[in-house]
Write a structure and sequence with these properties.
By secondary structure, this protein is α+β, with helices and mostly antiparallel strands. The chain has helices at 24-33, 54-66, 69-77, 94-100, 113-119, 188-191, 203-215; strands at residues 17-22, 35-40, 81-88, 107-112, 127-132, 134-136, 154-156, 164-170, 181-185, 194-197, 221-224. It is globular.
Length: 233
């Protein structure tokens, strides 16, 4: 079930391009299973993930004085929310290749906001949102909490370079224990528009990816990133 909230920001143009950088094993897992892995929100490197800024925390503390379960609810809720991160950019990003792929092997899935919205399987029973992350000063700025998804759509300003769009799934209405994450059904052909291969990769690697994708029955456009193409001088 894909839902949307008026306060959640998202580029209005469905053709806005988004990227996901990954290694080959993750791509094979995605194509073989037809399911997208989403990480549990409190397992991200950023320990602030799903937490509140100081002004919001102060307000919640006041509310918790009368209702001690309030803060505990938010802590537990982080264990029930899973996230898939995408990078918002018209072009591929040199920095993202360096951060999210190993050595000279790695891939980038190119998709769009509209494709992601359509790719989320309607038969998923969970509440799902797609939203753009807001980057704020956690010491000064306020995070609204009238929607339980909001804490997961804010990050500190030092992460601005990520330009992140998130698919967020909440399983708190279900009796589920999530360890590191959860795989959810997606329409792979909707989700993937094109696959780009690491700019420093060798030809055998490119051919391997093309062959694998073909054998698995998909026919996405696959091309090598041209970030490292020959200079003209």
């Amino acid at each position: 079930m894909y839902t949307h909230d008026n306060h959640i920001q998202l580029p209005s143009d469905p053709d806005t391009i988004v990227w996901k950088y990954m290694d080959l094993s993750k791509l094979i897992d995605l194509l073989l299973s037809g399911k997208m892995f989403m990480s549990r929100s409190d397992k991200f490197e950023d320990q602030y993930e799903g937490t509140f800024s100081e002004p919001t925390y102060e307000e919640i503390k006041k509310l918790s004085a009368d209702n001690p379960g309030f803060l505990e609810y938010y802590k537990q809720h982080r264990e029930q929310v899973v996230i898939s991160s995408w990078h918002l950019n018209e072009y591929e990003s040199f920095a993202m290749w360096q951060i999210f792929t190993q050595k000279q092997e790695g891939l980038a899935i190119q998709s769009t906001i509209g494709r992601l919205q359509k790719a989320l399987a309607p038969e998923n029973q969970f509440a799902q949102y797609i939203g753009e992350v807001n980057y704020i000063d956690y010491k000064k700025e306020y995070i609204p909490f009238d929607n339980t998804f909001f804490p997961f759509l804010f990050k500190r300003k030092s992460f601005q370079y990520e330009r992140e769009v998130r698919i967020i799934t909440d399983v708190s209405g279900f009796d589920m224990k999530i360890d590191n994450g959860l795989k959810i059904d997606v329409d792979i052909c909707q989700m993937i528009e094109k696959i780009y291969i690491h700019p420093k990769s060798e030809n055998w690697y490119k051919n391997l990816v093309i062959e694998l994708v073909k054998r698995l029955g998909f026919d996405f456009g696959i091309e090598k990133s041209d970030l490292e193409s020959d200079i003209l001088i």
